[in-house]
Amino acid sequence: MAEKSYRTVEARPNAESLIKPGELVDLIEVTPLTLNDRRIYNQLLENAWEAIEKPVTHVISKAVLRGSHNSNDRVGESLERLMQAIVKVGVVWDGKPAIERVQLLGGNLEALRSDGLLEYEIPARLRKIIGNSQVFARLQREVMFALSSKYALTLYEMVQKRGNLRWKASEKFALDQLRGILGVPKGKLTSWSNLKLRAIDPAVAEVNALSDYIVEIEPIKTGRAVTHVELRWWRKDGDASGAADRALQFSKVGRRVRAEARTEEVTPTAPARPRPAWLDARGPALRTETYETARLRHPGFDIYFVEGEWRAWAAGKPAADDPDRAFLAFLRRYAEANPA
Fold first, then answer.
1. 189: alpha, beta or left? (left if phi > 0; alpha if psi -120 to 50)
2. In this structure, what is the dihedral angle of CA atoms 333, 334, 335, 338, given to the nearest 10 degrees?
3. pTM here?
4. Residue in 305, 335, 34, 19 with CA at minimum distance from that of residue 183
């Protein structure tokens, strides 16, 4: 008797983790999304999970999507981008591989009150894809919110989808395919060196530090050009898993420092760039909104890498009156001097 296939919708989220269908992990973004967009979308899927296949509307509190931010503006902007987002999903049609283009989010109704509700719909074609899914990624909430770039979050989802495969520990991707899955905007990070420096290396470092897996991405050349990459993964041993737990704790402290704009000495779990003397003395933290503004203005750049360049450049210089504006100005000049 044939074994019954296990459907993704039968998997259950819990207090520590949520479920994401595998087809929505390896999708190709036609319309690039931000880190915040991706986090909000994962939360919308989780909230709708019990009835994700059904043609019904779902309701969620805006406060849940807003997180630690005081304003609902970012939630509304993310919803609009998600409604406009077209993605390409690999499916099987009449027994053969095919590409299906779908919208990520249907119509929605948002209460004007800051503590109000959001009513939303999952598009019909997407419901069908989710209903037919048999592969999924289980995402740890704490890791999802600790990762600091959309490239890191996407890589984490890719590994979580594949990590439990018994006879497989690597997979090859065409370089253009990897760009699409990571959501690299068209015309950005066009060379392998830029893609590796600004997207892949920082993402691998974060996933290795915070997740249960060690990840490598190795280039594969055709002639002299890099045309493919090989993604490799393996589960950490006990000592490495403990280090990841400590890194998560550090990450939470760091987010709290930025959110509360406090001066607090934090010891990193790995060597970091030397901080400018005036930063050590005064400890100014950039506002969370500054990072989001930076990502929207300069998609394709690893914002935390550029922040490190800014802090190194500022060493020994007089303290900035407005560190957030100073960083954004530096980022603009950096982007002009280093086109992706």
1. left
2. 130
3. 0.71
4. 34
